[in-house]
Amino acid sequence: MAFRVGKSVMLNFGNDLEPVFIFSGLALLLLIGPLLKWYISSMTQPDFRLLKIHYVELIPFLLLFITSFFITKNWFDANNRQSVIIFGSTIIFIYLHFAFYIFISGKVLKKTYKKHTETLKTKSQKNILSWLYTVIIGFIMIWISYFLNIIENSVPYIIGPIIYSVVIYYLSFKAFKLKVTDITGSVFKIKDDIVLFNDISQLIIDEKLYLESDISLSSVSKLVGKSVQKTSEAINQYANQNFNDFINYYRIQDAKKMLIDEKTKKYTISSIAFDIGFSSLSSFNSAFKKFEGTTPSSYRKANT
């Protein structure tokens, strides 16, 4: 992409740019497509490896790149019918080739998303999916800028390199923000942590263990037969919460029902707090406000 930007700037502001730079620059678009697909695949498939068959995808790039060294300036400037047809056909093929690989890359990403829709996603998995969708959108914008450049007099030529320069800078910023430079496709491996979190969820949610006032990370760890650290990591990864917030969230959901239910309307806020597992009214009020943005008494008044 850096070479593409440089070539476009030289073509726009320079004079008599040699055809080798123009055609080798165009050839790089035939390289960017396969690289994009391989990158998307490597970030979504834990066991992805480049095979010999993959290198066949580089043939169009190699052919045009090698050919660019044999194109003379006289032929390029001839502007006869033959040169116009060859150059025009090459441009159309390159842009369709690029669009095809963006489409294929999007299909790979969509397949991965669907595959993991039914399963819980870790923070790293969510970051990768968010990042890769941003990449696809960015490359669509780049392709549109290329397409607009071939429509005569529609937009200035320099708009193209400006757009894809901005896109590349933004993608770089997004990559570091999501810390995807430290993540690989291995995060999509099926891990025992998912099974562990399902066991934890069954105990805490299905069996309503969260209602017990003396519940602790240590006691839950013993019940699932794992270390405290392992149990904590599973909850942090798949619930995106620490242990206390994970427990309190489900307590608050019960509290909300009890605060507005006709059968429990006569209960005091203190009794509700103790019934759902809180050991003090202050901790209940703090947790309720954290999740709902209001106090229990205000919530009751607003919903009755």
From TrEMBL:
Q: Does the keyword Nucleus apply?
A: no
Q: Which residues cross the membrane?
A: 20-40, 52-72, 84-109, 130-148, 154-171
Give the record's keywords alphabetically: DNA-binding, Membrane, Transcription, Transcription regulation, Transmembrane, Transmembrane helix
Q: Has keyword rRNA-binding?
A: no
Q: What Pfam families has UniProt attached to this entry?
A: HTH_18
Q: Which PANTHER family match?
A: ARAC-FAMILY TRANSCRIPTIONAL REGULATOR
**Name of the molecule in the record:** AraC family transcriptional regulator
Naturally occurring in which organism (per UniProt): Aquimarina algicola
Print the organism lineage: Bacteria, Pseudomonadati, Bacteroidota, Flavobacteriia, Flavobacteriales
